[in-house]
């Protein structure tokens, strides 16, 4: 049977993405072969395509996230069986394909209440929110928190989940339309950062105290303002750098601003252990099945249209989640 994947042979723009026939081998020890039904599109895919983030080698099949069915298992695989519906959001790269080999310990069984398309649209972003708000800094009911880019894919899940916990959700957004979107998803205080100083507004909302935690996936552009939003002994959670990396930082600033904590966590470290991965995914499935978090798939493309999907993502023409269909 002929299989297809979207690969790059060199780094570049969306035109570097090539839809082509590929061979898919039998699974080896500890591996499974997946028949994939839905693939998630994430901004990290753009970074891999351009070469900003390194890839293992060229040619390379892109993609970090997908869902489908286990078609075959290799020796020593006991976690999953042929016919099981599963999803993943983990290396190795290679999700942009109709079939692939994957380490068995990186795939998660899907409950009947979660569709393949839902899973492909939410695993990476949803588990990111899970580890940030439940494990990096466990948010408690009544706590004010600041989450940057509140109308982005991660942000919209975070607003809903934080709201369900009972937190007071403060979020930054780039436009009034995005403020409306964030508000509709549980953000109590959307701040349009292009129109007002978000640090001053956070101090105002919190009666001058500041917040105990800031979740910052933006990076350089929000760095100083984020630190200024924290109350004494607050935690700065820097989990991304959409606006560019923070390259220089003096730890003395943490003392000067009130004995602050700083962490730069990654999903991969928080799901490296099989049990942590299962716990994270199951916590996500639970809030989605309860209806506390709704994942909106606002764009679908066929896998062969991956280049157009990348163009639309980079031009900020997409909202919510996007999936590619093999």
Automatic annotation (TrEMBL):
Boundaries of every Enoyl reductase (ER) domain copy: 12-324
UniProt GO cellular component terms: cytosol
Keywords recorded for this protein, A-Z: NADP, Oxidoreductase
Signal peptide (UniProt feature, chain positions): none
Family annotation (SUPFAM superfamilies): GroES-like, NAD(P)-binding Rossmann-fold domains
GO molecular function, one term: NADPH binding
UniProt cross-references to PANTHER family, sorted A to Z: QUINONE OXIDOREDUCTASE PIG3-RELATED (PTHR48106), QUINONE OXIDOREDUCTASE-RELATED (PTHR48106:SF13)
The protein, known as: NADPH:quinone reductase
Originating species: Limimonas halophila
Taxonomic path: Bacteria, Pseudomonadati, Pseudomonadota, Alphaproteobacteria, Rhodospirillales
């Amino acid at each position: 049977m002929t299989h297809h994947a979207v690969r790059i042979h060199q780094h570049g723009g969306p035109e570097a993405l090539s839809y082509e026939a590929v061979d898919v081998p039998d699974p080896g020890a500890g591996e499974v072969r997946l028949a994939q039904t839905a693939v998630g599109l994430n901004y990290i895919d753009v970074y891999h395509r351009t070469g900003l983030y390194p890839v293992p080698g060229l040619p390379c099949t892109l993609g970090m996230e997908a869902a489908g069915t286990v078609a075959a298992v290799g020796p020593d695989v006991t976690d999953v069986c042929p016919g099981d519906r599963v999803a993943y959001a983990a290396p190795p790269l290679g999700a942009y394909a109709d079939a692939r080999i994957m380490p068995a310990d990186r795939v998660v069984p899907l409950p009947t209440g979660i569709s393949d398309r839902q899973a492909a649209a939410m695993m990476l972003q949803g588990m990111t929110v899970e580890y940030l708000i439940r494990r990096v800094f466990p948010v408690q009911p009544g706590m004010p928190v600041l989450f940057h880019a509140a109308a982005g894919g991660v942000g919209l899940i975070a607003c809903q989940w934080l709201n369900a916990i009972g937190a007071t959700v403060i979020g930054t957004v780039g436009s009034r339309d995005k403020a409306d979107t964030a508000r509709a998803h549980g953000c109590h205080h959307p701040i349009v950062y292009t129109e007002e100083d978000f640090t001053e507004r956070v101090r105002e909302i919190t009666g001058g105290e500041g917040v105990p935690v800031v979740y910052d996936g933006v990076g350089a552009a929000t760095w100083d303002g984020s630190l200024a939003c924290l109350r004494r002994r607050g935690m700065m959670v820097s989990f991304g750098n959409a606006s560019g990396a923070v390259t220089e930082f003096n730890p003395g600033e943490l003392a000067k601003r009130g004995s602050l904590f700083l962490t730069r966590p990654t999903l991969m470290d928080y799901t490296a252990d099989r049990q942590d991965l299962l716990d994270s995914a199951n916590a996500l499935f639970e809030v989605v099945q309860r209806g506390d978090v709704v994942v909106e798939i606002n764009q679908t493309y066929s896998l062969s249209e991956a280049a157009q999907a990348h163009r639309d993502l980079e031009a900020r023409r997409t909202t919510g989640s996007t999936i590619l269909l093999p």
